[in-house]
Amino acid sequence: TYPIYKFIFINCHPNGDAEQFQFQVDTGTNTNYNQTITSTSFNAYHNEADTSTTLAYNNLDHAQGTGFQHLSVSTGNDNDQSVSGELFLFAPSDTTFVKHFLARSSTYTANNHIYDLYVAGYFNTTTALTRVRFQYTSDTLDSGTIKMYGIKDS
User: Fold this and answer.
1) Is the separation of the CB atoms in 103 and 73 below 8 Å?
2) Nearest 5°: CA angle at 34, between 30 and 38?
3) Which residue in 6, 19, 66, 118 has a CA-CA distance of 20 to 30 Å to 60?
4) CA-based max dimension of the chain
5) Cα(54)–Cα(66) distance, rounded to whole angstroms?
6) Looking at the whole model, is its pTM more than 0.90?
């Protein structure tokens, strides 16, 4: 219905420790969530003890991979650890071009670092996208809110 969708994920907290928040999409009536992705990512981090900082390439990307795209690094399950951020999905119903996305998240990790992660890429399909799935790598979402907004042409 809209040319741009914005997803906001707020204080998503995993049940298990050191889990990565991620997403994948699907087409038509498919429920495999295995669309081909090309993406890149980088992050900045700072630890709680104020002894370590960095800005670096992050290897959470895909080179024509079909797995879920990471939107966070290892989110901790302590009461004060979670991930929040936003994901933009462009022209998901288009049937001519690939589908671009970009995301930014802030994660308080299992090792007491705060990560600012940037991810961008595309789904290599010209078929309309009909489903989006968010999950943690190997555990369940213990708590959190995911909101979706449709943005119309200006």
Assistant:
1) no
2) 135
3) 6
4) 50
5) 29
6) yes
One-letter amino acid for residue 104 of the chain: R
SS3 65: strand
Q: Mind giving me the DSSP string for 91-107?
A: -TT-SSS-EEEEEEEEE
Burial class, 17, CB count within 10 angstroms (exposed 0-12 / middle 13-18 / buried 19+):
middle
Which amino acid appears at position 147 of this protein? K
Cα Rg of the chain (Å, integer) = 16
Token pair in block for residue 137: 């790598």
Q: Tell me, what's the pLDDT at 154?
A: 65
Structure tokens at 125: 């399909």
Q: How far apart are CA 72 and CA 139, in angstroms?
A: 14
Give the Cα separation of 143 and 151 in Å (integer): 26
CB 101 within 8 A of CB 68: no
Q: Which amino acid is at 57?
A: Y
